[in-house]
Amino acid sequence: MRQVIQGIYWLLGDGLNCNAFLIESKGEKLLIDSGLGNRMSYGMGNQASNSPALKQIIQQYQIDRVLLTHGHLDHSGGIMNLGTGSNIKVVASIIESQYLEKGDCSVISPFFGAGCSPISVSVKLDNGDYVDIGDFTFQVINTPGHTRGSICLWEQSRKILVSGDTVFPQGSFGRTDLPTGSSSELVASLKQLTQLDVKILLPGHMSPLVAADDATARSIRQSYEFASVSLGK
Predict the structure, then answer these.
(1) How many CB atoms neighbour CB 111 within 10 A?
(2) Interatomic CA distance for residues 172 and 55, integer angstroms
(3) Residue 180 and residue 174: Cα distance in Å, rounded?
(4) Which residues contact 15 (CB under 8 A, 6 or more apart)?
(5) What does the pLDDT look like over 18-39, one tens digit per residue?
(6) Positive or negative CA dihedral for 52, 57, 62, 65?
(7) Beta carbons within 8 Å of 59's beta carbon, 6+ residues apart
(8) Which among 108, 107, 23, 35 is positioned nearest to 61, based on CA atoms?
(9) Exposed/middle/buried for residue 108 (C-beta within 10 Å: 0-12, 13-18, 19+)
(10) pLDDT single digits (tens) 175-208
(11) 152 close to 141: Cβ distance less than 8 angstroms
(12) What is the helix (H) or strand (E) element at residue 221, kind and residue range?
């Protein structure tokens, strides 16, 4: 676990696991995304389960909420492995919740080829909703494109963007060729994000980007420009 800034910690992110971020403030905690768990990818080689590490983190920090930026298995598999007795409240977008609660593998795991389990979603978010963790207040931004129900989280006072698989550092962005993905919607979502003065980018993959100048916002603008050309939209 590595500290990004005070109150935000970066974990997982190894192999096929997505990044996960622990946000802690005034005794409140929220974990964003959960990795693959032991939902191994078919035909892609062996990979150690992150379930023991995830369980240890949840127990050590007494985490009771996990927010999923979208439903793909490399983000939700860890929660599936915790099972129904974990007392963890899962938070996700209204749209993505329908796939998570059905355990719809055609949407959740089209790439990984592993089994899916239904996840009960306790809090269903829509565009403009807020997620509070102590001193942190994140606004929900619907960003369809990578999946139909993908969301980003924007903390305006600290200029933090939790971007899931919508946008990554270095001008890159999430793929759109999986079920519910859309190139035109992703371009529109990236254009929306270029309006934000982002200083700290917490992506679903690759290293977090913390910049004192406008380098982070510039990276998002580059991703929009590249997507507009490469996706032909």
Answers:
(1) 17
(2) 31
(3) 13
(4) 47, 48
(5) 999 999 999 999 999 998 876 5
(6) negative
(7) none
(8) 23
(9) buried
(10) 999 999 999 999 999 999 999 999 999 999 999 9
(11) yes
(12) helix 215-230
Provide the whole-model pTM: 0.93
Residue 69 CA to residue 148 CA, distance in Å, equals 11
Strand order in the sheet with 65-67: 2-5, 8-12, 19-25, 28-32, 65-67, 89-93, 121-125
What is the structure's pLDDT at 44? 43
Give dist(CA 87, CA 200) in Å, integer.
31
Per-residue confidence (pLDDT) for residue 122, from 0 to 100: 95
The enclosing H or E element of 75 equals: helix 73-82
In the chain the domains, ranked by start, together with CATH numbers, are: 2-230 (3.60.15.10)
Listed residue (161, 164, 130, 136) closest to 150, CA to CA:
164
What are 58-74's pLDDT values in tens digits?
888 899 999 999 999 99
3: number of Cβ within 10 Å: 10
Query: What's the CA gap between 68 and 150, in Å, rounded?
Result: 9
